Amino acid sequence: MAAHDEDQQIAALVRRLAAQFPTINTDTVEGIIAEIHHGFDGRPVRDFIPLLVERRAVRRLSQPADTSRR
Predict the structure, then answer these.
(1) What single string gives the DSSP state of each residue in 1-70?
(2) Nearest-angstrom CA–CA distance, 38 and 70
(3) Cβ pair 17, 29 in contact under 8 A
(4) Which residues of 28-50 are buried (b: 16+ CB within 10 A; e: fewer)?
């Protein structure tokens, strides 16, 4: 997967999860996704990274509210 395609998929993921979790600030959603995404830096196979990022982000965003995260 080209870096540009991956970046577009991550941007779409931010929009999708921000809509799915409207009670969480969009900047927080974006930050969580960026943190998870950067955890895959340097990995040679990029095809499934947006999917892996989405799964981990949904897990984190679905956790009970913690005001220190917002």
Answers:
(1) --HHHHHHHHHHHHHHHHHH-TTS-HHHHHHHHHHHHHTTTT-S--TTHHHHHHHHHHHHHTSPP-GGG-
(2) 20
(3) yes
(4) ebbebbeebbeebeeeeeeeebb
Name the token pair of 6: 């991956």
Name every residue whose Cβ is closer than 8 Å to that of residue 46 and which is 6 or more positions away in sequence.
1, 3, 6, 40
30-69 per-position pLDDT tens digit? 999 999 999 999 998 899 999 999 999 999 999 987 544 4
Whats the size of the chain, residue-wise? 70
Q: What is the pLDDT of residues 44-55, one digit of tens each?
A: 889 999 999 999
